[in-house]
Design goal:
The structure holds two protein chains of two kinds. By secondary structure, chain A is an alpha+beta fold. Chain A has 14 helices and ten strands. Chain B is α/β, with parallel strands linked by helices. The longest helix of chain B has 16 residues, at 176-191. Classes of the chains: A alpha+beta, B alpha/beta. Chains A and B meet through helix 1 and helix 4 of A and helix 1, helix 2 and helix 3 of B.
Chain lengths: 459, 317
C-alpha cells in the first residue's frame, strides 16, 4: 500500500514537472527564440568554415572545423542558455503569469526542475544538430579532397609519462629549497607551494645535444596484437638551428622486453609522431601489454644544434586506438552539454532572485569575471599579486578561479582536435559536477528563495 | 448559511504592509482583518479600488505574505500544497500564456494538478464545452477578445473541480450573457457544496449570488453579514400587486394611509437593464441555450418575460 501511494506521488510529481517543461519548450518554440538561435548556429556551422582561411592542410581544416566552429557554436549556446534561463522565472514573475501556476499544488523544486529539464532537452537537440553538421562537413571535405588515412580524424587513448604529480614535485622542490635555506622571503609556505605547483604544469625541460631522456608509461587500456601504438613528442627548439636537430626514439615494451628504434631528423614542425605495430614487440600475451618505455636521444652536433625543450607532462604521449571519431564527438558534445546544464542552473538561480534585466546583467558580468579571473590567475606573478593595488582584483580572480575550476577543467575540443579520446574520467567529472552537483546546490538555493519570495505585487 | 458549518477560510488580525526597496513602509493595504468564510458559502468581498480586496485574496492564496496575523485556508497554511490542490483561482486579469491554445492551457494546468493524461483530456473537453470555446480550442489565446480570455481563465480555475473557488472580478470583461452564465455557474457550484469567495465592483452581481458579504475600505473591515440582513429596512414594508388598475391602486393607497396614519408611496417598478437585455437577445430569433448548461446538468432557458407594465409596487414608509 505505501509503495502504491509512493508511486502515485511520484507519478503526479513527474506530470507536474513534465507540464512545466513542456510549457517552457513551447514558449521557446513559439516565440522565435529557437528560430533565431538555429539561424545563428546554421551560419556558424555552414558559413564560418568557409570564411576562416586555414593553412590548406587537412590538419588545418580539421582545426578550423573542430576548434573554431564548435567553439563559436558553443559560445552562442552558452549565452543563449544563460539568458534564456534568466528569463524563465523572472519574465513569468514580472508578467504575473506565475500567479496562476503558483496557486496550483506545485512545489518550488518541481517548477525549477521542469524549467531546467526543458533547457537541457533543447540544448541536447541544439548540440546534436551542431555536432552532426560539423561531422558531416568533416566527411564531406575528407571525400572531396581525398584525405590520406593518416590525415583523417581519429580517436585514441592517451597515456602520459609516469611522473610525480605537480603537487608532489612542488613539495620536493620546496623541501630542497628549505634544506638549502633558499626559500624566498616574505611569502607564506602556501603561496610558495602554489606557485611551484603552477610552474610544474608548464615547466620546460631541456634535452641538450648528446643528452638522453626516458619516460615510463602504463597504458590504461592494454595493447593487443593487431593494434598499433603511436608515440608523440611536441617540443620547442631554436628556429635557426632546428634543421640541425636529429635523434633516435626508442620505444620498448617492458613486458616482452622488445624495443623499436626510430631515427628522426625532421624537427621543423614542432611535433613528431611515429606509429609502431604491436607485432614489433614480439609475442604479446592475449590479455595485452600495458608497460612501455619511451626514450629520446639527441644525436645533433653539440656545436651547431640547440637542445629540445619539452613539457614532459603535456608534450610526450603514447597513443592507442580509442574508438571511433564520431563516438569521441558525442563525448565532446556530452561535456559541452554538461557545461550548458550548469549555465542553465545558474541562470535559473539568478532568475529566481532578480528581474530579467538585472539577472541577465549579473549573469553576463559573472561570465566575463570568470573568463577574466581565470586568465588573471594564470598570468599574474606572485610579486604583482602582493602589490596593494592588485590585491583585491587578484583575490576576486582567485576566488572565481577556485569556484569555477572544476566546472571548466574539461577541454573537450582540444582533445577532439588532437585526436585524443575524451576519457571516461573527464566525462564523469564534467557530468558529475556540472550536470549534477552544482545544479543540485543551485536548485536548493533557488527553491529556498522561491519559497520565501512574494510572487505578487500591490496591483 | 448555518453557523455550525466549519470555516473554510479564517483570518485573524491580518495585516499587510507593503515596503519599498529600502524596506520603508509605503502603504498598509490590510489592517487587522478578521474574516470567517464557512463551507458551502458564496461570500462577496466588496470595496472601492485600493480597499485591500485583491491583497487579501493574494494572501489567502500564499502569493503575498502577511505582515502580521494568521490565515487558515481549508484548515492549512496558505502555501500548503494539499490545500492548493482543492482551490481554484481566477485572478482579476487572466494572465494566460498567449502562445498557448485554450486546449493546451487547460492541459497545462491539469498537469500541475497531477492529473493523468486521460483525465486531463476528459476534463479539458468538458471545460471547453462549458465555457463555449470548443470552436476556438486550437487558436492561440493571444488573439482572443477579453471576454474569451476570461472564459479560458474561468475554465482553468475549475480544472481541479475545486472545493474552494476564489474569483477576483469574475464578470469583468464579459458581456451580459457571459456575466449571467458566470453567476449561474457560481450558484450551481454553491449548490454542489463548493465554497466561493468573489470580489466584484458590480454590486448587482454580488447581490445576485452571494450569501454573505464583507465590505472593506482602506484595508479595514467596515461591514459584514448576510445580504438580506444588511439591506433590510426594518421600518418599511413593500407590497407588490400585479394587474391592479389606477382607481384600485388609489383606493388601496388611501386605505393604507387612513389605517396607518403614514404617507404611502406608489411606484411602477421597471425591470433591470440586464433582464431587459437578456430578454431582447432571447427574442432575437433564437431560443438561446447557455453554454454552461451541460456542465450544470440542466438546460437554462432565456429569462422569463418581464412583469406587465401595470404592476405596482407599494413601499410603505
Amino acid at each position: 500500500m505505501p509503495s502504491k501511494l509512493l508511486h502515485r506521488f511520484f507519478a503526479a510529481s513527474a506530470r507536474r514537472i513534465g507540464g512545466v517543461a513542456v510549457l517552457a519548450v513551447r514558449a521557446a518554440l513559439r516565440t522565435r527564440t529557437v528560430a533565431a538561435l538555429l539561424v545563428l548556429l546554421a551560419a556558424c556551422v555552414l558559413v564560418l568554415p568557409g570564411v576562416v582561411k586555414g593553412d590548406g592542410t587537412p590538419e588545418g581544416e580539421l582545426h578550423i572545423l573542430l576548434t573554431y566552429t564548435l567553439s563559436f557554436a558553443f559560445g552562442i549556446l552558452c549565452l543563449a542558455t544563460l539568458w534564456a534561463a534568466c528569463a524563465l522565472f523572472a519574465a513569468e514573475i514580472d508578467s504575473a503569469r506565475i500567479q496562476l501556476s503558483a496557486v496550483k499544488p506545485v512545489r518550488a523544486v518541481e517548477f525549477w526542475v521542469g524549467k531546467w529539464l526543458a533547457l537541457l532537452v533543447m540544448n541536447a537537440v541544439a548540440l546534436l544538430v551542431v555536432y552532426a553538421g560539423v561531422y558531416a562537413q568533416v566527411h564531406w571535405r575528407m571525400y572531396r579532397d581525398g584525405w590520406e588515412v593518416i590525415e583523417r580524424p581519429v580517436s585514441r587513448h592517451v597515456a602520459r609519462p609516469l611522473l610525480p604529480t605537480p603537487r608532489e614535485e612542488a613539495r620536493e622542490i620546496f623541501a630542497d629549497l628549505q634544506a638549502r635555506d633558499q626559500l624566498p622571503s616574505g611569502y607564506s609556505e602556501r603561496t610558495i607551494l602554489r606557485v611551484l605547483e603552477q610552474k610544474a604544469h608548464e615547466k620546460y625541460s631541456e634535452i641538450p645535444p648528446g643528452g638522453r631522456q626516458a619516460w615510463r608509461f602504463q597504458l590504461r587500456r592494454p595493447l593487443h596484437i593487431g593494434e598499433v601504438i603511436a608515440a608523440r613528442m611536441r617540443f620547442e627548439t631554436e628556429y635557426n638551428t632546428r634543421t640541425q636537430v636529429s635523434g633516435i626514439c626508442r620505444l620498448s615494451c617492458v613486458e616482452t622486453g622488445r624495443a623499436v628504434e626510430v631515427p628522426l631528423d625532421d624537427f621543423t614542425l614542432k611535433e613528431i609522431e611515429f606509429v609502431v605495430d604491436a607485432r614489433a614487440f614480439g609475442q604479446i600475451p592475449t590479455e595485452g601489454v600495458r608497460a612501455f618505455e619511451l626514450s629520446f636521444m639527441h644525436t645533433g652536433d653539440p656545436k651547431r644544434a640547440a637542445g629540445l625543450l619539452l613539457r614532459f607532462r603535456k608534450d610526450v604521449a603514447l597513443l592507442t586506438p580509442g574508438g571511433s571519431f564520431w563516438m569521441n564527438m558525442l563525448r565532446a558534445a556530452a561535456v559541452h552539454w554538461s557545461v550548458l546544464a550548469l549555465l542553465a542552473a545558474f541562470g535559473l538561480a539568478l532568475s529566481v532572485c532578480f528581474s530579467l534585466p538585472v539577472a541577465a546583467f549579473v549573469a553576463t558580468m559573472l561570465l566575463v569575471l570568470t573568463m577574466v579571473g581565470n586568465s588573471v590567475v594564470q598570468v599574474v606573478s606572485e610579486e604583482d599579486a602582493q602589490k596593494w593595488r592588485n590585491r583585491a582584483g587578484v583575490l576576486v580572480s582567485r576566488v572565481v578561479h577556485s569556484a569555477t575550476r572544476r566546472a571548466l577543467q574539461a577541454k573537450p575540443l582540444a582533445a577532439l582536435t588532437n585526436g585524443e579520446r575524451i576519457d571516461t574520467d573527464m566525462l564523469r567529472t564534467s557530468l558529475g559536477w556540472n550536470a549534477l552537483l552544482f545544479p543540485l546546490l543551485l536548485a536548493a538555493a533557488s527553491c529556498a528563495v522561491l519559497r520565501r519570495r512574494e510572487l505578487a505585487d500591490t496591483e | 448559511m448555518p453557523a455550525s458549518k466549519s470555516p473554510v477560510i479564517e483570518t485573524r488580525g491580518l495585516r499587510k504592509v507593503f515596503r519599498d526597496f529600502w524596506r520603508r513602509p509605503t502603504v498598509e493595504a490590510v489592517k487587522g482583518l478578521d474574516l470567517t468564510i464557512n463551507d458551502g458559502e458564496v461570500f462577496g468581498l466588496l470595496g472601492p479600488n485600493g480597499s485591500g480586496k485583491s491583497t487579501t485574496i493574494k494572501m489567502l492564496l500564499g502569493l503575498l505574505r502577511p505582515t502580521a496575523g494568521t490565515i487558515r485556508v481549508l484548515d492549512s497554511a496558505p502555501d500548503d500544497t494539499h490545500a492548493k490542490a482543492c482551490i481554484g483561482y481566477l485572478p482579476e486579469v487572466s494572465h494566460l500564456h498567449t502562445f498557448l491554445t485554450p486546449r493546451e492551457t487547460l492541459m497545462y494546468y491539469a498537469s500541475l494538478f497531477g492529473l493523468s493524461r486521460a483525465q486531463a483530456v476528459q476534463r479539458t473537453r468538458e471545460l471547453l464545452a462549458m465555457v463555449d470555446l470548443e470552436h476556438a480550442a486550437d487558436r492561440a489565446v493571444g488573439g482572443f477578445s477579453k471576454g474569451m480570455a476570461r472564459r479560458v481563465g474561468l475554465a482553468q480555475a475549475l480544472v481541479n473541480a475545486p472545493r474552494l473557488l476564489i474569483l477576483d472580478e469574475p464578470t469583468s470583461g464579459l458581456d451580459p450573457i457571459g456575466s449571467r452564465e458566470v453567476k449561474d455557474l457560481v450558484c450551481a457550484l454553491a449548490k454542489g457544496g463548493v465554497t466561493v469567495l468573489m470580489t466584484s465592483h458590480l454590486l448587482a452581481d454580488v447581490e445576485d449570488v452571494c450569501d454573505r458579504v464583507a465590505i472593506l475600505d482602506r484595508g479595514v473591515l467596515c461591514a459584514e453579514g448576510k445580504i438580506a440582513d444588511l439591506l433590510r429596512q426594518p421600518d418599511a414594508v413593500r407590497f407588490e400587486v400585479e394587474g391592479l388598475d389606477e382607481p384600485d391602486a388609489a383606493a388601496v393607497r388611501a386605505e393604507l394611509e387612513a389605517r396607518t396614519g403614514r404617507r404611502v408611496r406608489q411606484e411602477y417598478p421597471a425591470m433591470s437593464l440586464e433582464r431587459y437585455f437578456l430578454q431582447v437577445v432571447a427574442q432575437d430569433g433564437q431560443q438561446r441555450t447557455f453554454a454552461m448548461a451541460p456542465f450544470l446538468g440542466a438546460t437554462l432557458s432565456a429569462p422569463e418575460t418581464a412583469p406587465t407594465p401595470t404592476s405596482n409596487s407599494l413601499p410603505m414608509t
